[in-house]
Amino acid sequence: MSTDAHEPPAPGGTLAERQARLVAALVAGGAPPPGFAPAPLAAARAALLRKRAGEVARHWPLLTAALGPHWPSAFLTWAADRPTGGGLRDGWDLARALRDRAELPPLGAEELAVREVSLRYDGRRAPRPRRSPALAHVDGAVAIQLAGRTYLLRR
Fold this sequence. Notes:
Layout: H1 15-27, H2 38-59, H3 61-67, H4 71-79, H5 87-100, H6 106-118, E1 119-120, E2 128-129, E3 134-138, E4 141-146, E5 149-154
């Protein structure tokens, strides 16, 4: 392989472009790049999605428990075409999506409410601690954050 800077890029684009297409196919629902067998690529993609689901489950145990046997399919359907933002953010985004579709179970709603009063998260930047008091209502409960401590009060 030549290192001549004036040589045209390899077929399919530069190495960085080919790598980006491979990453997109593995973690963001992109099309398989040329030269990759679809079956092994699909197997690797499925394994990465399962690993990602496990990471989200560690950050969102109540959401996971609330969804029960529906957890894997709910997560995999939601995550199929989204790149990861990390376990905390992925779970937060999933919980908000389920809430918006009125599909968030009560236990997951409580966990989301506690997160929302404890941290600020706009869906783009990493969550950061709240410095002012916050309050969130969910069916049958209220989440309150005062002086850096979070409380969940059930009726």
